[in-house]
Amino acid sequence: MSKLVAFAAIQGAYNIVSKAEGKYKRALETYGGSQKLEFPNTAYFLPIIYSLTGIKVTDLDSAKKPLEFARQLLPPHVKKDCHLPYLGPLLDGGMAALFAEEIAEAVRYVEDPDFYQPEMEDPDVDNGKIWLGAADDAIMRKRGVEFVDGTAPGFAAIVGAAPDPATAKKMAEEYQLKTIYVFMAANQNGTTFTEQLIEEGVQIGWNTRLVPFGPDISAAVFALGFANRAGMAFGGIEPGDYKKMLAYQKDRIFAFVNALGDVNAEWAANAAGAINWGFPTIADTDIPEVLPTGVCTYEHVVANVTHEEMPQKSIEVRGLKVTVADIEIPLAYGPAFEGERVRKDDLYLEMGGGKTQCTELCKMGDMTDIEDGKVDLIGPDVTDIKKGDRLPFGIYVQVAGRQMQADFEPILERQIHHLINYAQGIMHIGQRDISWIRVGDQAIDKGFTLKDVGVILHAKFHQDFGNILDKVQVTLYTKEGDVGELTKRARGEYKMRDDRVEKMTDEAVETYYSCTLCQSFAPSHVCVVSPERTGLCGAYNWMDCKASFEINPTGPNQPVEKGEVIDAKLGQFKGVNDFIYKASRQAIDHYNFYSMLIDPMTTCGCCECIAAVLPSCNGVMTVHRDYTQETPCGMKFTTLAGVMGGGQSSPGFVGHSKYNITQGKFIVGDGGLLRMVWMPKSLKEEIKDRILKRGEEMGVPDLFDRIADESVGITEEDILPFLQEKDHPALKLDPIVG
Amino acid sequence: MTTEEVKKKAAAGAKKEKKAVNAKDLTVDPATVEMIERSRELGIETIFDRAQTMKPCNIGLQGICCKNCAQGPCRLPMPKGGIEGEDTRKGLCGATPETIASRNFARMVAAGAAAHSDHGRGVAETFLAAARKETEDYKIKDTKKLLEIAPDYGVDITVEGEDGEKLARDMDEIAVELGETALAQWGQQQGEVITVKRAPAPRYELWKKLGVIPRGIDRETVEIMHRTHMGVDQDYENMTDQCTRASLADGWGGSMIATDLQDVMFGCPYPVKSSANLGVLKEDHVNIIIHGHEPLLSEMIVQASELPELLALAKEKGANGIQLSGICCTANEILIRHGVPLAGNYLQQELAIVTGAVDAMVVDVQCIMENVANVADCFHTKIITTNPRAKIASGNTIHIEFDEHTAFNDAKKIVKEAIENFTKRETEVMIPDYSSDLIAGFSYEAINYHLGGTFRGSYAPLNDNIINGRIRGVAGVVGCNNARATHDEAHITIVKELIKHDVIVLTTGCNAITCAKVGLLTPESAKVFCGAGLAEVCETVGIPPVLHMGSCVDNSRILMAATEVVKAGGLGNDISDLPAAGSAPEWMSEKAISIGQYFVASGVYTVFGVTLPVSGAPVFEDHLYNKLEGIYGGMWDLEADPIKHAHKMIAHIDKKRKALGIDKSRERVLMDMAARQKLEAA
Question: What is the pTM of this model?
Answer without folding.
Answer: 0.86
